[in-house]
Each structure stands twice: as structure tokens, then as C-alpha cells.
Hints:
Number of domains: 2
Helix content: 25-40%
Mean pLDDT: 90
Order of helices and strands: HHEHHHEHEHEEEEEHHEEHHEEEEE
Number of strands: 15
CATH topology of the largest domain: Antithrombin, Chain I, domain 2
CATH superfamily of the largest domain: Antithrombin, subunit I, domain 2
Largest sheet: 10 strands, mixed
Distance between the termini: 81 Å
Strand content: 25-35%
Bound molecules: 2-acetamido-2-deoxy-beta-D-glucopyranose
Shape: globular
CATH architecture of the largest domain: 2-Layer Sandwich
Amino acid sequence: MWMTNVVALCLLALVASAEDKKLSSHATTLADKSANLAFSLYNKMAKEKGTENILISPVVVASSLGMVALGGKSSTASQVKKVLSADNMKDEHLHAGLSELLSGVRTMLHPTVSDAKTRNTTWKINNRLYGPSSVSFANDFVKNSKKHYNYDHSKINIRDKRSAVNSINEWAAKSTDGKLAEVTKDVPNPDGAMIVNAMYFKPHWFETFNGDMVDKRAFLVTRSLTIGVPMMHRTGLYDFHEDKENRVFVLNMPLGQKQASLILIMPYYLEPLERLEKLLTRKQVDTWISKLENRAVAISLPKIAMEVSHNLQKHLAELGLTEAVDKAKADLSNISGKKDLYLSNVFHASAMEMDVIGNPFDTSIYSSGKLSNPQLFYVDHPFIFLLKDNKSNSILYIGRVVRPKGDVLRDEL
Length: 413
Ligand SMILES: *[C@@H]1O[C@H](CO)[C@@H](O)[C@H](O)[C@H]1NC(C)=O
Ligand SMILES: *[C@@H]1O[C@H](CO)[C@@H](O)[C@H](O)[C@H]1NC(C)=O
Ligand SMILES: *[C@@H]1O[C@H](CO)[C@@H](O)[C@H](O)[C@H]1NC(C)=O
């Protein structure tokens, strides 16, 4: 009898974990806040001269901020909450909510054995806090930052910059199966605490591209610079919107079993993305999404791998995180038990691979007539994209592709 009960309980637990668990209200609130953060951060970064491709994960940025709040005290900690617009949330709710959000998207995209249906999209998220060798991390902090934010901890010798750079890059490469070879070439201010996020993302399309149809095409970076990229093609039914007033196409490409989707936002023709970026608010994106309509679309998308690395420290300061990054003011004493640390770098780096792979689909669609007269969506010039989680609505990635890797076909400068 007793045994039967135990077995029944286990079964129940399995069923419960396989089902869609609802997010707690704190996690829902934080998903919403992190989406706002996504747009503010993107807009700051887009304005920076010399930045080409952008790739940031707002959920991961939010959870890194949570980690800073965990290590911070008094106004240093409360300022972090302000940047997250979570001023009024209790600490325990903040940490539990962000933790739930992060583990939710992790298991959704990078699931366990029990969740075989979604196993194909890869999203590796590795987080590490580096500190100078003089610092001793407090046990509680190590335990809690691991538990909530999946952070591990390491120390570097601040007098040997070269070895600091190497150890960061080696760790990132190792933890992304070699996909992210380099996070940084330099470690400015190695005397502080440094956040390193090293990620690798590879979407698995809801419907696969045809691998035999990949060919080399031109990608127009600017009027004078053209790059050769492998281009993949497919025609299918997609949610699509043409904003005639703003001369923008918007396309929704679902991933996996539609747990998430990649939303591509592209001007009609080649142009600098500034105009589009001025339009890029959360409200505008929601409006576009609300206007999507299912129709036949012929998609040509570069089959690219990109590695993008940002140091977000300055941009987070622009968004109000001024104390944690200030050596004179920072109080991060919950990290080490002493007021001896400030946040000196926030390295946020991702490798992303867009490939043909996806789920097989019912090919009888070709003879159904549903795909006749498709809308062309030909991605041969810079575009913006968002990866959205279908359940929490959080933004898993936001970025832009301005200059893919490839041979220069034409350069008139
Ligand atoms: C920081 O440390 C103090 C005790 O020194 C503790 O009361 C507080 O809960 C800690 N904060 C966090 C976020 O762990
Ligand atoms: C994962 O991808 C492989 C190869 O594309 C495919 O054979 C397999 O069925 C996929 N699994 C799921 C659960 O979609
Ligand atoms: C979200 O998931 C539901 C249920 O699977 C699906 O019907 C819907 O199309 C998905 N939304 C997107 C944007 O993929």
C-alpha cells in the first residue's frame, strides 16, 4: 500500500512537471519589466558609434542584475531594483521571480530528458562572477547566486591582464562547446567584480528549411559594401505584417513546438537601421505583433553564425546603475562580507547559429494551393530581431544583424 502511494506520487510529479506550469505573479511582473529593459538597453546600444551587430538577452541581463542586488546592500541594492523597475518588490520575491523566469526559459529551450519534444533548440547560458584574488566570496552569496541565477565564481590575478583575458575566454569557449571563442580582448579595470555571460543559441525551426536549397547570395551591408552569405530558402505559412506607412516587414518564425518565436523586423529596402530603431518601442512592436496575419511567405534567410560580445557596464550605468559601478560608492558587501568590491565589467557575449534545421512538416501543403502567390521576405540587408517566449512573453534575445560574416564581394570605399 505504502509502496503504491510512493509510485503514484512520483507519477503525479512527472505529470505535473510535463504540464505547462503557470508563472508566479512575481515572475510575470519581472518578465514584463525585463521586456521594458530590453528596449531601453537596445536603444542605448544602438546609438553607440561603431557598434555593428547587437545580441543581448534581456532575461539574462535581468538575472545578472538580480545577482548584483543579491550582493549589494543599502542604496547600491535598491538602485538595482530601480533599474529593473522592481523598486517595490521584496528581495525574496525579486530573487525567486527572476530565478523562476530564468529556469523557465532554460528548461523550455534547453530541456531535460522528460521534455523530449523541445530538445532540439539549443540555448546554453553560462554565468560567472570574477573577482580579484584578494576577495573571498561569502558562502551565503556563493550558494544563493548559484541557486537563483546559476552563477559560479572565480578569481583572477589583477596584475596579469593577459592571463585574466585568457581565463575568461577559455572558460567561455569551454562552456559553449567552443562556439564562443572570445568574450573579450581586454579587461579594463580588472580590480573590480566582473560579470561574464557566455551563451550559445541555435534555434530549431518549427518547420525546417530545405538544406539542398542553400546557395550563396549577396548581403548588402551598406550601399557600397556587399558580403557573400549562404542563404537558405523556404516557402510556408507564416504570420506576417506589412507596415506600409513605415515601410517595414514583420515576420514571426516559430521555433520548436512554438514555445518561442523569432520575430524579424526589416525595412523594405537597404537603409541604415536608425530610422527603424527610432520606431522601435515596446508599444510599436506589440502593435506590429497584433497585426500579424497568417499567409504564404517565401523566406530567404542568411544561414549565419555570429558571435557578438558587449560590455554592458556603461549602458547599465546610463540606465541608472550608477552606484554599483562606482568604486567610491559601491556597496557590494554581501558578496564578500566587506565593502571591497565594485562592478567593473559586464561582459555579455553570445554565439548564435541560424541553420536550416527544424521539424519536418506536411509536404502536401505544396499541392494544396495555400502557398500560391507568396509574399517575398528576402533578408539581404540589415534587420532587427527579437526572440520571444510564447508563455511568459519575455524577450529572450533582442538584436540586429548589420554585418554578417562572409567574403566581401564588393567594397567601393
Ligand atoms: C546582506 O547581508 C545582510 C547582513 O549583513 C543581510 O541581512 C541581508 O539579508 C543580505 N542581503 C541579501 C540580499 O542577501
Ligand atoms: C530533433 O532534430 C532531429 C534532426 O533534425 C530530428 O530527427 C528529431 O526528430 C528532432 N526531435 C524532436 C523532438 O523534434
Ligand atoms: C503560442 O503557442 C500557441 C499554442 O501552442 C500557438 O497556438 C501560438 O501560435 C503560439 N504563438 C506564437 C507566436 O508562436
